[in-house]
Amino acid sequence: MKFKKICPNYLYICSPFSDLFFINFLKRVKVKIVLEFPTYPYYREVKGFKTQILFFFDKFFRMKIYKYVDVAVSYTNFEEIFKIKIISINNGVSFERL
């Protein structure tokens, strides 16, 4: 079986937390990166001990992601999140437009 090599121009990532592994991954990616913030501000979503540990590391590493992300997508009306320009989108279908 032959595999066709795919060379994308963009990588769309939906990731709620940042850590050292995520930062290192972003550093190595050689295409444009679009990062989705599924919830923002997401500190209200932090419940449980494991999630609190992830959030602890995220508070440090999220301030570094702007160096590697080209644009972000969010369901909010913010213009920037963590120094990254935001493209605001809607979450759902507008039945009035159909």
Describe this structure in words.
With 98 residues, the protein is of the alpha/beta class. It has one domain. The protein is 22% helix and 22% strand. It has helices at 20-28, 49-61, and strands spanning 10-14, 32-37, 71-74, 80-81, 84-88. The N and C termini lie far apart (43 Å).
Task: Describe what is shown at a glance.
This protein has 98 residues and is α/β, with parallel strands linked by helices. It has 2 helices and 5 strands, in the order βαβαβββ.
Q: Roughly how much helix do the residues carry, as a percent range? A: 10-25%
CA gyration radius, whole angstroms: 16 Å
Shape assignment: globular
What is the count of β-strands? 5
State the assembly state of the protein chains: single chain
Order of helices and strands: EHEHEEE
Strand content: 15-25%
SS element count, helices: 2
Unreliable stretches (pLDDT < 50, length at least 5) are none
Largest sheet: 5 strands, mixed
Structural class: alpha/beta
In order across it, which strands form the biggest sheet?
1-2-3-5-4
The separation of the N and C termini measures: 43 Å
Mean model confidence by pLDDT: 84
Whole-number total of structural domains: 1
How are the elements arranged and paired?
Layout: E1 10-14, H1 20-28, E2 32-37, H2 49-61, E3 71-74, E4 80-81, E5 84-88
Parallel strand pairs: 1-2, 2-3, 3-5
Antiparallel strand pairs: 4-5
